[in-house]
Each structure stands twice: as structure tokens, then as C-alpha cells.
């Protein structure tokens, strides 16, 4: 009888905690459920871009910071690791760091923002300038993210990707809805990101033998863009008003060297002139 009673208690506790769990999308005081969309809660997401390289021994600390941000903020954080500059250069074939994780898209972004020249690791938080500073050191990422997630959301984007497993072509339709007036032109860019790539990484921690993690897991790596490093205009409009909706499409053939099961689409809506991110969305292909 005691065993049966304990079993019933365990079942009831399991059911209680299972039903109490709420997963994203979610919203807080900065959410906006207007526009007549019953049951939809909008919230501001923040793009964290980690400029890095596999021979940068301090760069794993920045990657750890991103994972902590994701633990704390959940779906409100979207990230990309962008391999650029000296620390991303591959070594000769057959040697430890022969992989080349650079991309033409990442190189173009780096040329524009200047992250590699500033010394890695560093990053961008919504590509926003904070007191005149766009490149942010990773120790300050949490502070900047906390500032932005409390800003009322003014647009929502959601992507619907479709992947042909045979041809490896991904086709995407991205829906943008304006929630509050935005009085300047907007652009949208569609990035392809590969997660969980196993490859050596330098790490300067004293606890790391030889200063290299041979089976390091590279997370959220930028691979390419479907529509250029900075995308295309959302529309020809110069200003946007609440409840306007737009559709952006794109397609791309995934190279054989990339793991289809680990590919994600990161869609970024931003202010064309300043490059500051308005909203971001991430979907697994």
C-alpha cells in the first residue's frame, strides 16, 4: 500500500510540473499583443554577434557568455558566431587548424564594423551604438542585452523554411508585421547558421592540456547569407505604420560539407541607415 501511494504521489507531481511549464514565445511588460492577433504575444528579441576565431585562445570565454545569456533570456536571444581576421585563418592542410570557417558574408560584415581590427573576441549587440560604441567587449554583453530586452517591441518577424533533402535547397518565406510606427527605411537579411561543429579550438585556460580543445563544439556559426551580407530593403516605403505586413522570400542550396540537421535560418530586420536591429528570428531548417 505504501509503495502504491508513493507511486501515485510521484505521478501527480510529474503531471503538476509538466503542466506548469511554459515555453516561448513569451512576453513580459514589454510585450505587445495588439493588431487583433488573438493568442499571439510579441516580444523583443536581441541579436548577439560573436566575432571569433579558432586560434583565439580567449574566444571560448565569449562563447560561454552567449550560452549563459541564452540560459537567462531563452528565446529572446539569437546569436551568430562570425569567424574573421587573423585568428580565423586556416593552417596548412593536414594540420590542426586546417578548417576554414570564414565566409564572404562574415568578411563583409567585419570590413564594415571593424571587429577583427579591434581585437578578438568582441561582438555586436543588435548592431546598436551605445554611447558612440558599437563594438562591445563580451564582459559587457549582459548589461547591454538587459537594456534592450526591456524596450517595447515595434515589429515581429517569423520565417517559414522548407528544405528539400534531396537537392539540399532551402526555400524561405519571412513574414514581417509592423506593430508600432517606425519612421525610417527598413531592410531585411537572411543568414544561414550551422550549429555544433566539432573542430579544434585554442583555449588559454590553464586547465586545458596543450592549450587546445580538440573536440571543441563551435556553436551558431555563420555560414552564408541568402540575400547578401546586408540583405534587401523590406519595401520601398520610407516610414512604416502599425499593422503593415510584408513578405520576403529567398532560397539557397546548402553545400554538402554542411550538416543539414544542424542548419538554422536567422532573419534580421534592421534600420537601413544605422544598421540597428529592430527584430530578429531564428528557425531550424
The CATH architecture can be given as Sandwich
Number of helices: 4
Give the DSSP E fraction (strand runs of 2 or more residues): 25-35%
Characterize the main sheet. Answer: 5 strands, antiparallel
Number of domains: 1
CATH evolutionary superfamily: Immunoglobulins
- Which fold does the CATH topology refer to? Immunoglobulin-like
Distance between the termini: 50 Å
Helix and strand content put the structural class at alpha+beta
Query: Which consecutive residue ranges, at least 5 long each, have pLDDT under 50?
Result: 1-35
The strand count comes to 15
Binned, the helix content reads 10-25%
CATH class: Mainly Beta
- Strand/helix succession: HEHEHEHEEEEEEEEEEEE
Please compute the radius of gyration using only Cα atoms.
Answer: 21 Å
Shape verdict: globular
In round numbers, the mean pLDDT is 90
Amino acid at each position: 500500500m505504501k509503495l502504491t501511494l508513493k507511486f501515485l504521489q510521484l505521478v501527480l507531481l510529474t503531471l503538476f510540473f509538466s503542466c506548469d511549464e511554459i515555453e516561448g514565445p513569451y512576453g513580459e511588460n514589454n510585450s505587445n499583443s495588439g493588431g487583433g492577433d488573438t493568442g499571439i504575444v510579441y516580444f523583443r528579441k536581441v541579436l548577439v554577434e560573436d566575432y571569433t576565431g579558432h586560434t583565439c585562445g580567449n574566444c571560448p570565454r565569449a562563447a560561454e557568455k552567449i550560452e549563459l545569456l541564452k540560459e537567462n533570456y531563452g528565446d529572446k536571444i539569437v546569436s551568430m558566431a562570425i569567424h574573421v581576421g587573423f585568428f580565423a585563418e586556416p593552417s596548412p592542410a593536414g594540420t590542426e587548424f586546417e578548417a576554414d570557417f570564414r565566409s564572404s558574408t562574415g568578411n563583409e560584415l567585419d570590413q564594415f564594423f571593424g571587429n577583427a581590427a579591434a581585437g578578438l573576441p568582441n561582438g555586436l549587440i543588435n548592431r546598436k551604438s551605445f554611447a558612440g560604441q558599437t563594438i562591445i567587449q563580451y564582459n559587457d554583453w549582459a548589461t547591454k542585452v538587459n537594456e534592450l530586452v526591456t524596450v517595447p517591441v515595434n515589429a515581429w518577424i517569423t520565417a517559414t523554411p522548407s528544405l528539400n533533402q534531396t537537392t539540399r535547397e532551402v526555400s524561405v518565406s519571412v513574414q514581417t508585421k509592423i506593430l508600432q510606427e517606425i519612421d525610417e527605411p527598413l531592410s531585411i537579411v537572411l543568414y544561414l547558421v550551422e550549429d555544433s561543429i566539432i573542430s579544434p579550438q585554442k583555449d588559454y585556460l590553464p586547465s586545458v592540456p596543450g592549450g587546445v580543445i580538440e573536440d571543441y563544439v563551435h556553436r551558431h556559426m555563420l555560414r552564408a547569407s541568402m540575400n547578401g551580407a546586408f540583405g534587401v530593403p523590406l519595401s520601398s516605403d520610407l516610414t512604416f505604420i502599425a499593422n503593415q505586413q510584408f513578405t520576403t522570400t529567398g532560397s539557397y542550396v546548402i553545400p554538402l560539407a554542411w550538416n543539414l540537421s544542424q542548419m538554422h535560418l536567422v532573419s534580421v530586420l534592421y534600420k537601413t541607415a544605422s544598421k540597428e536591429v529592430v527584430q530578429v528570428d531564428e528557425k531550424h531548417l
